[in-house]
Records
---
Amino acid sequence: MKHPGRGVPYGYDSLAEASGCGRGLIEKLAKGKQQTADVEAAHSLVEALGVALLVLFAPSASPELDDTSLETPPTKKE
């Protein structure tokens, strides 16, 4: 994964070492299997990454489509 704040590439292990957070937490957050972290871990991660806290936990700009988003709205009959 690319380090957005400083342009340094990070793997799970190197980010875990740099932040002091567990590799498992980092992997779960990166894969979307976990969407929260305690305050201390979140601050450690953003400090290591060099980004703002909101950047780390911001929703995706392109959320996955679900079946309901593909439905065509009903048309008005005259």
Note: The radius of gyration is 18 Å.
---
Amino acid sequence: MSAYSVHSMRVMKLYRHSLKNLQNWAVHRDLFIERGFAMRAEFDANKFVKDPRLVEKIVSDGEAKLAEFRHPDPYTLPHMPGGSKYQRHPTNGLGPGPEINRIPSWLNTSAGSLTRQLLELHAHWDWQAIARRQLQPFTYIDPGMIESAIKECFKNDTMYCARLQVVGGELHLSDYRAVFFDRHYAPARLMPMLDVLRRHPNLPDVDLVVAAVDEPRIRIKVDRTEWPRTVRLYPGFPVAGGGGGLPPPLFSSTIDSAHLDLAWPDFSFYMPRRPHKLRTPPWSRLQPQMLEQSAAISWADKIELAVHTGNVGSSYRKRLAAQAKISPAEMLVNELFIGDHGRINSTCATINRHRTGGFQQHLCYMTFTEQCSYKYLLNSASIGYANKFKYLLLCGSVVIYVRDGMTHQEFYELGLLPGIHYVSVPDAAAVPAMVRWLKANDAYARAVAMAGRARMAALTTDAVADYVAELLKQYAALQTFRPSVAKGAVPIRCEDDLWRHYARDPYWMRLYLMQDNATCTRPIAAGAKLGPPGYGGAYAGSKPRCVASHDLRSFAQPDVCSSRNGKPLHQPGTSFADFESFPYPSDGERYDWQTDRWKK
């Protein structure tokens, strides 16, 4: 058979594969169709070429272009638990089946080079596609929808909710919820905007509401109870009390398909850089540290147990603990509460309880390095949302995602794939079978562990800022209005502006101030004289309003912001101004936030 005939057959095979891939494997079908038309035109233009070297180059280029939009693996692999061939046709130990071994001819297939190329695939995030996917339900965003989002803030069951406006490159903040006990972490919920404005100074003007709470809020679940409630809230026409009658684009820390919320980075990415009560360092410091520590543990030295350490209070984790009791050869659940840290001083390794499976309570703790010494790590639902998934992926171990109760996702999870970056099981009872299968298919398990680690290694704080910037650019394109600064909004330019704004007293403030202005969205001019109240930032003496600082529901603190006995109201670090006025602190404040000193 001539070389020309062979290449003709490859072209026909490539065409048939393109049709199949369009139906089953394409990530972005619109781009795939456009690429398909271009490829067909290119082949038609070169169909009379007979130089075998030139034909080989044309066909190889076509294969590479076809593979560019190919979905890595949208289905459960046949030989994995739940797959069509599980237990009927055991694999030979080389992996989950022939699907994993398909290598296109244009790849450099030397072992080391191929590994690097495959891992490089996981180092790039398609923020444009992830943003477009979230905004797909919205054809426009009007002022009425912003008012609807603000109404959602006043339902008094949130810890934090604020309106952020970027006008002319300057950030302005209006607090609607900033409860006292959460003030330590309020700045962490806004820090993404400072990063965005530093990296993307030409960000278009935007007006948005950030709830930044554990769970999404704008429900669209089709249910006999939920759906009528949704229709009453958002009937599609203006409603009494404000709002445009349409569901708002509210930003929350997690999202799911039963809500319309848009994903905002969780506060754990921007934890305080100074010591704080949760003790977790910010992602910018912790991520490289974890990568370095996990790299010191070889795959061969990892312990072949599936491990969870931490809180076991939720019903889902209780089922995990119960399963560990009866499956000690595959699982270890180590129960530990935050309050145990001052009481328990031994790691599980030092008391030789790290290789014993089963369920153990309040005996020991595990350092991050010790957690990474296990080959399999369990990610399961907590009482609220648990943000540990990203930390587990950094270990270079296989993360087993227990889907029972895990209804919400953070933004980066939209760029992860089960079977590629982690493996998933339906519930705790399925964990032992998955562990046994991974042990029997160690090469595949290691590939998943490497892919998950490579994916999270690329999720730097710069990448987080790029995600937010892309989401806001697409969001801004949907706005039907030109944003203008709300009355009573406060300007924010630096991290320390946030600490000064949220501080209840100067002693508290100095625990968190950085005093370096490195986070400012605009550089401080050389030789500029810095002084109070902002010291180079935009802070002008503002404080959160009382109505934002407390739960005003009838069973909580309904009268805490009401006048009593005709006396002026006062609470430290609190404003009693209305939302039309700048929120200066109350007259009874003993500290002068304008001059940064105690009043005489």
Note: Residues 3-24 form the longest helix (22 residues).
---
Amino acid sequence: MLLLLLLLLLLQLLLPLLLLLLLLLLLLLLLMLLLLLLLQLLLLLLQQLLILLLLLLLLLLLLLLLLLLLLLLLLLLLLLLLLLLLLLLLILMLLLMLLLLLLQLLLLLQHLLLLLRLLMLLMVLLLRLLLLLLLLLLLLLLLLLLLLLLILIIMLLLLLLLPLLLLLLLLLLLLLLLLLLILLLLQLVLLLLLVV
């Protein structure tokens, strides 16, 4: 009887402690559940941010490619126009040279009035001046053509470097996928810990 009474007293003393311990365990479990929920939310946010970043990078690369192609087309068109203009100037210069030669022949062959000679000399001088001006214009156009060729070469080099940029983007995509896998593994580990 005494032993039973002692056991009952011990149980009455230990029962509040056991209840308190049980409450503490429940609180700890609730905290772990809240932590798991927060981690899941963070993982979802990180995944969405990574996907948005990848989409933005792809869009920027596509815009850059389109811009380079447009610039290249514009440069090609301008180059063709300059070539046509050079051809026209060369034809005009040849015609002016022929006319100058004819006038010089007329000056040599003719024995007309002095006034006519003076007029022809004046025309020859004017034609020479015009020929010099055309030569200067031709030189300027040649310089511009060389400059456009240089710009075109630079644009072609940029287009050649664009695959390298795409390769870097693919590497970045692989790294982001690895990060997503690591995040999913962490989530699974947390779930296993909570289950255990």
Note: Helices lie at 2-109, 114-195.
---
Amino acid sequence: MPDKLDSDIWKLNCKNGVVDIKTGELFPHKQEYYIRESTI
């Protein structure tokens, strides 16, 4: 599992969802993203 943590460098976890910084799209939070940190 450690290899899955933060594996997608283009996803940014925000309060209102997950932003794909390549496309600008906002997605709902999902556990499958394995993002450890978040913006404030």
Note: Residues 1-40 form one domain.
